[in-house]
Design brief:
The chain folds into two domains: 120 residues, Phosphorylase Kinase, domain 1, CATH 3.30.200.20; 237 residues, Aminoglycoside phosphotransferase (APH), C-terminal lobe (Aminoglycoside 3'-phosphotransferase, Chain: A, domain 2, Alpha-Beta Complex). Helix content is 45%, strand content 13%. Helix 8 packs across helix 11, helix 9 packs across helix 12 and helix 11 runs antiparallel to helix 12. The structure holds 2-acetamido-2-deoxy-1-O-phosphono-alpha-D-glucopyranose and magnesium ion (MG).
Length: 368
């Protein structure tokens, strides 16, 4: 966390005034690990209430109206479910959006789109979890999918079209290879071959969907371990970062948690020896997830959960490598080789998941 610079600070104060926030701003701190939006924590004088201000990456989320209305529908629905279940402390169990002065759920300053929400107090995010926390996280993500199963009204829209569609991601990757805009193809040629070797297998969800064997359900679509808030006792409070909640295959959400929490190293680890798949986290998360999700999952969906871990790691590999080939236009990078490093780490993780694959399948069969 660090204070915003003076110039940007002035601009941030101006933006904050456009929202329905009661009180005088004390401090604005840039915060979070997001690779897409820019996030700030806003503290006020004389109150413990805090706010989260975000500049939305408008290049990526092109329909901000739809984005914010999705989040509003999701959080209203969850709030309703929690109230029905007699839950207290609702303010800490789901996001609360703060509207702008004109009641819109965002503010457009002529260049950028901004939004604000309540900061969930006494909460923590983790980049790595213990098996115990993974179990609770599994239950919570299963619950999240289950709560959103009956969201009323028209189906939720896709905030990023084809977001977790592997066929589409592969096409983008192949375009990046073909165009080789940044001239980096030669150095990654081997990884390209490895990606192509697995291409058919990785597109099987789309095939199964087309023949009516696999349903789409509302997914979170960014179930990284750091998108879950825990309280100070390690209990799950809620799921955050709802930008990409949209219809998709449940394996996506299962797999993205495995890809992040199940990695013994970091997503962008420079030491590949650190990177491997943690079967203990897999077992714990799977138990938790199936506890809350098994009532609505089909046998095919359950049997494809281990595939989800492969799929999401592979998908992330194609996305990082495509961005590297395209000259780093999508993800924020901290160094010129960041996307290459990320790709190498994802590939190492993929190989480790592959090595554990049969054991993962056996485990699922043994617990259902
Ligand atoms: C992005 O910004 P963040 O960290 O929440 C990305 C995810 C990727 C992830 C890689 C909208 O999420 O899809 O899996 O980075 N979000 C978008 O860590 O592209
Ligand atoms: Mg995030």
């Amino acid at each position: 966390m660090h204070l915003a610079t003076n110039k940007s600070m002035k601009q941030l104060y101006k933006i904050i005034k456009e929202f329905k926030l009661i009180g005088t701003v004390n401090k604005i701190i840039s915060f979070g690990e997001g690779m897409i939006n820019s996030t700030y924590l806003v503290t006020l004088k004389d109150t413990t209430t805090q706010y989260v201000l975000q500049k939305i990456n408008h290049n990526i989320f092109q329909d901000v109206e739809k984005l914010q209305s999705n989040i509003k529908r999701i959080t209203d629905h969850i709030r309703h479910k929690l109230t029905e279940a007699g839950e207290t402390d609702i303010e800490r169990k789901t996001l609360t959006l703060i509207p702008a002065l004109d009641e819109k759920l965002y503010y457009f300053d002529g260049n950028n789109y901004w939004r604000m929400s309540l900061m969930i107090l006494d909460s923590k995010t983790y980049e790595a979890v213990t098996p115990e926390y993974a179990f609770y996280a599994g239950k919570a993500f299963g619950n999240f999918q289950s709560m959103l199963a009956d969201i009323p009204g028209k189906p939720l829209g896709e905030t990023i079209p084809n977001f977790h569609n592997m066929e589409f991601r592969l096409q983008q990757f192949r375009d990046a290879v073909k165009q080789n805009i940044a001239g980096r193809l030669e150095e990654v040629a081997e990884m390209v071959i490895e990606i192509e070797k697995r291409a058919n297998e990785m597109c099987q969800c789309q095939d199964l969907y087309r023949v009516g064997k696999l349903p789409k359900r509302i997914n979170h679509c960014d179930t990284k371990v750091n998108n879950m808030l825990f309280d100070t006792n390690g209990k799950v409070l809620c799921v955050i970062d709802l930008d990409t909640a949209m219809p998709g295959f449940v394996m996506s959400d299962f797999g993205d948690f495995m890809r992040t929490a199940g990695n013994t190293g970091k997503e962008d680890d420079t030491n590949l020896d650190n990177v491997s798949f943690n079967m203990e986290i897999f077992r714990a998360y799977t138990r938790g997830y199936l506890e809350s999700a098994k009532i609505f999952l089909t046998p095919l969906e359950i049997s494809l959960l281990p595939f989800g871990a492969k799929l999401m790691t592979y998908m992330q590999l194609t996305r990082f490598l495509a961005d590297y080939l395209n000259g780093d236009t999508y993800y924020k990078i901290n160094s010129p080789l960041h996307n290459l490093q990320r790709s190498k780490a994802q590939f190492k993780l993929l190989q480790s998941i592959e090595a554990n694959y049969q054991e993962m399948q056996r485990f699922i069969t043994s617990i259902i």
